[in-house]
Amino acid sequence: MKNLIEMGFIPVASFTVEKKQYIIEITHTECLDWEKSIYIHTIDEQIIRIGSSKNKLKIRFRSWERGVTKALEFKASSTPMWEAIEWERLLENKKGILYAKKGDVLQTSVGEISTYLSEESYLIGKYLPKMNRSKHR
Questions:
Q1: Does the predicted model carry a pTM greater than 0.85?
Q2: Over the stretch 104-131, which tens digit does the pLDDT of each residue have?
Q3: DSSP bridge pairs for 49
Q4: CB 65, CB 71: distance < 8 Å
């Protein structure tokens, strides 16, 4: 997606649902250690969900796999059942692409500040992705 690349995002993984399992396949291993990052789920060149992570992306991505998979298996999960079912529907016979980037850092009078949360909020407001539960942060 050209506009994401222009903003500094790179494709870092693919994701799909197979046999009630939400699977993320990392294609850019360097990103796994990124902190204060923004990630974007896309399916068929459409932005579906925008999120961020203060912790390393590998922790966030594993949390996604566990949460959606548990919900699809009718187990207690941080992912609502309706959301897991919608991921399964959206990904029927296809894979999505996850894009990510580190948040920009600004030098201020009090020190360096990462803008990752502001970037996430701005992008959610701009694109209004269907799978974001909140339309702002």
A1: yes
A2: 999 999 999 999 999 999 999 999 999 9
A3: 41
A4: no
